[in-house]
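Reading a protein record of the kind used here takes only a little practice. The integers have meaning only within a learned vocabulary of local backbone shapes. With that in mind, consider the following protein and its fold in token form:
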Amino acid sequence: MSYLYEVMALDKVTKLREKYVDDLKARGMIKSEAVERAFRHVERHRFLGSFFYPDPVQRKFREANFDPENPELETLKLIYSDTPLVTRIIDGISISSTAQPGLVAQMLEFLDLKPGQKVLEIGAGTGYTAALIYEIVGKDGHVITVDIQEDVVAQTRRLLHAAGYDRIEVIFGDGFYGYYQNAPYDRIVATVGCPDISLHWVEQLAPEGFMLIPLQHGIEGHNPLTRIWVEQEKILGKFVGPAGFMTAQGELVLEQKVSFEARRRLLKRQPTEEKPLPESLRDWHNLSVARRSEFFLFASIVDSWADIFEPAKGACVLAEKTGLLYGDAEALYAELVTLASSWTSFGRPGFKQWELQFVPKGTPLPAKPCEYTWIIPCKFTVEIAQLSPKR
């Protein structure tokens, strides 16, 4: 590559990266100077080779072959946009990716990282998030990322080395067990959807530390970000925002009632009927993604709801201004009406209205603190969700 071409390519990447960061700031995803500096410094395209991107028209993933040393403009525009990019697909199912940048930025803001902190990441992806974390905690900090896929670990090590991040440790293993060798950690963050928390993570937290976990509630991929900490020997939590991730593998894996694949198969069919939205959800088309996620969260907690999906039977799906029924879904539509009415009667509670406690399985549960408390059995813990309704 000629010197002139190198300068032109560098200028092209710099301009795209600056616009990408400016857009994330304008949309409120990036708020702090520390997160902004990290995003301006770390080059996302350095952490990609071949990848897949969503085609909304064909409703499938398309492959892009990408050479970071010889980047094409159109591919760079895709990389420096707020788009999640899948890096591995097996049997039509995504198993590894680099997350949506806007979501990564929000997670970094929620983590409130400080120079010198020690951070454990569950799910290495491409190494991009680990590099962003390293830029904030600095050389006096320590970043460890764990992944269960051996080929992902090999690629992540190679990409981090090529980008100059040799101080980040990439560990091959099941993230469920954390990484005791370097514990305790000021922060533990998962970049995969978790059907439950691991008690190993709890044990590896520093006294003033906390976790940020995309904790599944309802259908696969609905993973509200959950801040979890230990206080007076209790494992407590709060929801902080919406998220969607591929599900963790290994010990955390759970047989999904409504998996990505089950939804994909069902929604390829034609709807059998359209119904009006329930009265209390007539403004659905005006609700933000976060507010919609808050309704899904409410429904999944109070009624073990899974997006009104019964894969063997049918589904009721909320469209912009109607409810779409698939298969035999009259009963599911009736359930939607009831849940929508309940959400409204509780004052449309959001993430902040929920208080959580996690009790290890086999441990006696505390007495219900109030009427608005729900018990959710998980794989390793029992989640106690308490609602403070706005009335």
About this structure: The longest strand covers residues 205-214.
